[in-house]
Amino acid sequence: MVLLEVADLTVDYGRVRALSGVSLTVRDGEVATVLGANGAGKSTLLRAMIGTAKPTTGSLRFAGTDITRLPTHGRLAQGIVLVPEGRRILISLTIEDNLRLGAHLRRDGVAVRREIEMIYERFPNLAERRSMLASCLSGGEQQMLAIGRALLAKPRLMMLDEPSLGLSPLFVERLFDLLAELNRDGLTILLVEQNTGKALAAADSATVLELGRVLMAGDPRQLAADPALQAAYLGAAKPAPNALTPS
């Protein structure tokens, strides 16, 4: 079943066109990834999905419902959650208060308390310092807190914007293990990620943006084997020109 459908989406910032005719689908239960260089439009696409960037043209449907004009809080209530680039936790609040922010639309306090304890079981480093200010956390721990906060919104679709940015290799491994675990538990994930190799290995479908347009889309394994994608994003050397060919 298609959970999210983006159709012919265009987003303008004044006279600057950030997205032009972008279409993609995310199926229920899959991991989808969106790749591209800086300025390709990846973050704008996520902002359009969460409702903080207004489309000029095009439409968005979630679980069969048109959400193109739905405000952000309405999309959150539908089960769409964004873990933003840079994590955006509130370092002046405690770890637990940051978690509780994720449940601000919920009224089932007993269930929220139970789920917070489950998050602490998943992230023992957070549990040990639940009453401390979030400023005490490392970058990797802050990312885990941001994901825990998002989980408390009970998402059907979790979108993550560059979640591995600035993390140590150890935390990058832990992050992708966590995303695989959440997906096995049934969570649909849309991942915008700078680590192209990791993203393609984790994903069931992939879309590559370039200058606000879809450059290529399809099976991640096929895209990973594409010479142009390898040269642009995976660090593969471009084929050397034939020495017998005149320049």
TrEMBL record:
It comes from the Bacteria. Residues 4-236 form the ABC transporter domain. PANTHER family: ABC TRANSPORTER ATP-BINDING PROTEIN, HIGH-AFFINITY BRANCHED-CHAIN AMINO ACID TRANSPORT ATP-BINDING PROTEIN LIVF. This is ABC transporter ATP-binding protein. One of its GO terms (molecular function) is ATP binding. It holds the Pfam family ABC_tran. The keyword Transport applies. It comes from Phreatobacter stygius. Belongs to the ABC transporter superfamily. One of its GO terms (biological process) is L-amino acid transport. Keywords: Amino-acid transport, ATP-binding, Nucleotide-binding, Transport. The keyword Nucleotide-binding applies.
